[in-house]
Structures are given as structure tokens and as C-alpha cells.
Amino acid sequence: TGPRNAPEGRPQMLVSRGHDTCRICDVSQPSGTMHCEFCNVCIEGWDHHCPWTSKCVGGANMGKFKAFVAIDTICLMFVSVMAVFGQDEILNGS
Prior knowledge:
single chain; alpha+beta; two-stranded antiparallel ribbon; 2 helices; 17% strand
């Protein structure tokens, strides 16, 4: 059996070549569109489904997703530095 909600004989995780109709949503899919089995919608420029945001990442929100990842990375680096060197040493210069 295939992914959830997928019709028999056709995997759900296929990128459209521009002339397909989604068999689940029954909409015409432009090239690069894919049906997300988690969100149960077709996403143009689909890249992946992000478990951290519970959203699909695709053409329309790729910039926001990259900003989210960059900010998270900066925060992680800051917390790591604080954990290694200690808050007092950084703030007081000792």
C-alpha cells in the first residue's frame, strides 16, 4: 500500500511535470507542484514538509523558511556560547 490518501497504483509523492491533475485534490497542477500527504493540499514549488512548523515549504514561503532556519541557527549558537563560557564571564568580562 502507498502513502495515506493515495489512490491505488499511483504514489502520492510525485512532482507534477505540468500536465497532471492531482487525483486527490482534483486540481490541475503546474510544473513542480506536489500534493503533500501531511497537509492534504497541492503546493506549487514543493520542497518538503517541515515538522518544526507543521507547514509545507515551497516556492511561496521558501524565503521565510530560510530566514527561520537562519534565526534558529543564530539562537542555537548564542545559547551554545552562553552554556560553554557562562553568562557572567561574557557580561562582566572576567
